[in-house]
Amino acid sequence: MQARNGDAVHSITNWQVNGSATEGRKMVRDFSKLMLRAYNAEADYAVRSMRPHRLASLVDRLDKSRATVARLGATMQIRISESYHRLRVRELELTADYLAKQEEEKERRRELRERQREEEKLQREIERERARLAKEQAHYRSALQRLRAASEGGAVDEAEVAQLEQQLAELEAAMAAVDAREANIRAGYVYVISNIGAFGESIVKIGLTRRLEPMDRVNELGDASVPFRFDVHALIFSEDAVGLERTLHQEFDDRRVNRVNLRREFFYVRPAEVREALQRFAGQHLLQFREEAEAPEWRASGGRSQ
Known about the structure:
It is a single chain. This protein is of the alpha+beta class. It folds into 3 domains: 2-100, no CATH class; 111-183; 188-300. It contains 10 helices and 6 strands.
């Protein structure tokens, strides 16, 4: 709108050509259009090539373009108006904000899909575990029935009966634990892992998984996207793994590797520091902690740090 209204460019108003004010105004108007076109070409390029991390550099480049217009048009006092320049800078800011929100939404959807896949894997694990426990229960119940049937009218091997009943009781407890695990969506394992070959010695990942076999999740993280497998420093089961993970993230929040995407759970922290925090927050849940990373593949490959 400002460009059409003539407010985008300011210039001298009393310029003459060969003594003609009309010719002078035409020359100033043509040069003003040319300068505005050059400035807008730079602004349009900035919009097209915008990435959120490039905002400051592109705004600086547009500032310099405006300064160049003022320098080249100094004779006729041609310059891009401050109000029009602010509008184009605002356009860059809004474009950067839109792209950032778009990236956040993509990451949110990716995280949601990943969470759904994890829940589906957990459900399959629970179903397999229930089937295994049910099969064992059927086996021991059958054995107990056969033992009692064989001992009718005779002496009963009380020790063997007691052993089978004990095994059945343990299986009942295990089945109840699986049910409780399925019902408690906050229960799971908090893991502390590192990958010296990929990230160096002072970076750890602190995450959680609800899987019954937490190492399955750790092994998945060490797939083809990183050159070496992750080393596990700690696996802590907690009835409130969600809360424990959040507490650890808050403890090391100022040392996040990625300060923009908080779903990336890497921190500039050494394992020993995490152990000290876990001793305060996890208490009796911290049964074992390995401070040194074995990193066998990395060491066998020469162990070259960045």
